[in-house]
Amino acid sequence: MHLGCRMPDPIRVRDVVRKRRLELDSDERAYRISYDVLFPDGPIRLMPDGLVEWFSHGEPRTSRVVATTLGQVRAGERVLVRLDDTPDQWWLCDVEAATEPSGVEGG
85 in a domain, yes or no? Predict the structure, then answer.
């Protein structure tokens, strides 16, 4: 029976650090990242000011992120997703399969 509630579309991602694949809901919060977030040693820590901190090859790094949902990303993008219950730990993921983002102009 359809009650007018739409189930979120699944988005397939690959955890870059732990090399595991997951399917997450399209309404899951994510963060778009800059291209300098490449090889984190572990989880990435989200700071209250919109910055993230992580270690790459043992060296501390920082970068800025932009909040979104997985429903707004495209396959091939890299995003941060919270995969565990730890509130400030986010994991770098490759988006492998995604639905076409809604409300995107020109593209």
Answer: yes
